[in-house]
Amino acid sequence: MKKSFILSFLIISLFSGCFSFSSLNPFSDSKDDENRVEIEIPDEAPIWLKEQKEKNNIVALGATKNIKPNQLKLSKQKALINAGHNLSRKVYIKSLKILKNYLKKVPSKVFEKDIKKEAEQIALKSLDKAKIKGFWQSDENQLFTLIKIDTSILAKDIQLSSKRLFKVDFNLYENILSDRAKAQMIQELEE
């Protein structure tokens, strides 16, 4: 009886929208960004965690609460998953913006859904190339981590993806592959 009640509650809450899968998807277009709660960093945190900025890098913070001493490895994985989600979201938004800006400059036969797919691929590749800056455990039993990716690597990935995306349009392809374009992309990524 209890199992069927719990199962029916989960199904009802799933279909009623109490739980949103779009919050789990870093590439969703939902407006849940306004509802997201910022991760609060304690005052005693190290400087590298408080600043969260590093020249020529995009950084993302991840955190987990209620750490048990015997499950530190699991807590680190949870914090890394959280940071990876945040990093992929940042990279997706920034690369999508860059690709759309280039598309506006030259009329092309590329569709917006193709640009979104490429931005997703760039974001997923960025997770492979991301580096862990460090972990820190607070007195309130929270674990924080910071991961980063070099913007020049990201700009190179955007240029490589443009080969597939814009190969039909030679002018746009030439514009996005130039060294000036790469420097401009790095500057936009660091904003």
Explain the overall architecture.
Helix content is 57%, strand content 12%. It has 191 residues and is α+β, with helices and mostly antiparallel strands. It has one domain. The chain has a 3-stranded antiparallel β-sheet. The relative contact order is 0.15.
What Rg do the Cα atoms give?
A: 20 Å
- Uncertain spans: 13-22
Mean pLDDT: 77
Distance between the termini: 55 Å
Quantity of strands, as a count: 3
How are the SSEs placed, and which strands pair?
Elements (H helix, E strand, L loop, with lengths): L1 H15 L30 H5 L5 E8 L7 H34 L6 H18 L1 E7 L5 E8 H16 L3 H8 L1 H12 L1
Antiparallel strand pairs: 1-3, 2-3
Helix pairs in contact: 3-4, 4-5, 5-6, 5-7
Task: Please outline what is shown here.
This protein is an alpha+beta fold and 191 residues long.
